[in-house]
Amino acid sequence: MQHNQPERNTCIAVCGQIDEEHSLKINKLLADCDYLGQHQTPAQFALYQYKQQPVVIRDGNQSLNVTVYKIDIATLKELDSYFRYPTVHDRIRCEIQGIGDAWLYVMCEGYAALAGVYQAPLKREQTRQANTVLA
């Protein structure tokens, strides 16, 4: 994983969501983007719950099922706004099996600590549901 400036066309990896409203907003933002399929991240993350939706945290040991899209810079900027990057979420480069590098939004550690996210790990059933893809 590394921080880079976005290229002209880039990929975004999106983790499935519990909250239907959140999923609909993400799907709307990605509706015109090229769908690249369902893939997995390395086992470097953890899922926690925050305001009825799962959030991805770095430094875990879970591999996440993600849906990957090829996006343009304008879409990336819309997603940045939606995920409140860089205040609430950080955008990191992540190696995705079968794709290569893709952006992934993870909750900023300081924000997660202040919001009490670490006190709400997802239960096994919620993790399975949150780890489903947005197709």
UniProtKB/TrEMBL annotation:
Cited SUPFAM superfamilies: Gamma-glutamyl cyclotransferase-like
CDD domains listed in its UniProt record: GGCT_like
Residue intervals of the Gamma-glutamylcyclotransferase AIG2-like domain: 26-109
This protein's record includes keyword Cell membrane: no
Keywords associated with the record: Transferase
Keyword Transmembrane helix carried by entry: no
Coiled-coil annotated residue ranges, if any: none
Matches recorded under InterPro entries: AIG2-like_dom (IPR009288), GGCT-like (IPR013024), GGCT-like_sf (IPR036568)
GO MF annotation: an example: transferase activity
Name of the protein this chain belongs to: Gamma-glutamylcyclotransferase (GGCT)/AIG2-like uncharacterized protein YtfP
